[in-house]
């Protein structure tokens, strides 16, 4: 069978390889502690589940849900955004419901790129950002994210010939996997750069709430309040622990929202209306659960970082996200994949290799704080034994 050429860049998947390594570890009798996936283990808020449950017995929720039927959700999303960031949003022209924000970041390149156009992506960055570009027939220019630059790309380093063929830039802060936060001044610089070079500025913003120690990460639309070049993607997965319900939304430039809506209309309808009713309850209801979740991850962060420091692994304390971005010690600094494969096979602790997020991620691993503190400390103990045996 002959498949389309666009499938070729999608063949290699480090995370699929890690899944096989985890399966081998389980088959060999290892007790798996999976820190490789950023899927929250916290429960969905009760009032959200109640809103979904009440919808199930309402026959009017059982049919197809087209765009105009999502008005209440779009209004809730616009209201939530304006209350949080102070920027007015038109729910009719500047908001679009999505089946998770990944749907939006994967489909938007189909509306923006012609074959051969460049997209400027973070390196390391979230893998699905690249997948959408490849499916659109685009090319990727990886913008290195280096510790010495605060894990911020240096726009001046982008070659002029690449810029001439570029149509979009994708950013995401707080950043997965490095956990970095970008200041508003950086977004102002990014907006000015994209205006100058006629680029669409995409900001993936899943960790808008998952920040610690009083930090308040900015929205890109605070640097582009008239929404001239920008679109921002949000998800219910992190703040409200609704990953399995697949709810996200886009807010931004009306032309981009309309184009993404046209792509979406040819690919799928919307979720079940009851799920959107739950999302409305999440956005408009009590927010104490959000802060409780943040506090849970802060405690886990502190436990994990302290445990790593006790074994001599000096890892910076992240200000945001549910991850630890850890630089590998010698002799592992040039082979994060081998480190993660051998770690899970010998100890049952699964981590995500930095190389899976891009070339500049090599030499790091990402660890997700998706277990209780006692389990996290057990994971560090096992890692210590592995590191000791590797020297």
Describe the structure.
The protein is α/β, with parallel strands linked by helices and 391 residues long. The chain folds into 2 domains: 134 residues, Aspartate Aminotransferase, domain 1 (Alpha-Beta Complex); 239 residues, Aspartate Aminotransferase, domain 2, CATH 3.40.640. 40% of the residues lie in helices and 14% in strands. It has 12 helices and 12 strands. The strands form 3 sheets. The chain has a 7-stranded mixed beta sheet with strand order 2-8-7-6-5-3-4, sandwiched between helices.
Helix-strand string: HEHHEHEHEHEHEEEHHHEHEEEH
**Average pLDDT value?**
94
Instruction: Please tally the β strands and state the result.
Output: 12
Query: Given the helix and strand composition, which structural class is it?
Result: alpha/beta
Strand sequence of the main sheet, in spatial order?
A: 2-8-7-6-5-3-4
Biggest sheet details: 7 strands, mixed
Strand content: 5-15%
Could you give me the name of the CATH homologous superfamily of the largest domain? Type I PLP-dependent aspartate aminotransferase-like (Major domain)
Percent of residues in helices: 25-40%
Number of helices: 12
* Total of domains: 2
CATH level-two architecture of the largest domain = 3-Layer(aba) Sandwich
CATH topology value of the largest domain = Aspartate Aminotransferase, domain 2
In CATH, what is the class of the largest domain? Alpha Beta
Runs in which pLDDT lies below 50 for 5 or more consecutive residues are none
Overall, the morphology is globular
- Whole-number radius of gyration? 21 Å
**Through-space gap between termini:** 48 Å
